[in-house]
Amino acid sequence: MKRIGLLLLPVVLITCASTPRAKDSPQDDPSKTVNYQADGRGFDPASITKERHDAAKAEVQALIADLNRIIRARNYNGWLDHLADSYLEEISSQAFLEERTEELYRRDQIVAQNTGRNPNHVQKKILRVPRDYFDNVVVPSRSNDRMDDIDFISENRVKAYTINSHGQRLILYDLEMIANKWKIIN
User: Fold this and answer.
1) How far, in Å, CA of 138 to CA of 131, rounded?
2) The domain that contains 86 carries what CATH number?
């Protein structure tokens, strides 16, 4: 009998541990519903009409064509205009720049090895500021992007994808509509 009681104790504790939803949660207060949906929680992508999806897709395609032109021209300030403040802050952090420095170094070593050069002779490019990130990472990799599709993540946020030769969807940009303009947020 004691064994049965001990086996049931965790079930009782788990059942009792769940509490009712707090009264001030967004679902209970209609004035908070917009904020709740805007951050992606509770957002239903099916709520986006085909017309809205197609319009957003056309806007994002135009944005990416503009970004390609800006990046090919090495126009750093033009590129900055397309970044959300939070993303600029992220790419300005030393932790971000150090991680990209190491990724760039590993990539350059792989390229050297694949082209028959000694990977140990690759010079490490140190990324100290966002401009270094733009010149050494963005320009070589993002000057000719092609967008094939978008997914709405929330009412004002989309992920733009390209489809590679293997049929895989690869994320190009994570964008958010800020002050009526699509901005790169990641």
Assistant:
1) 10
2) 3.10.450
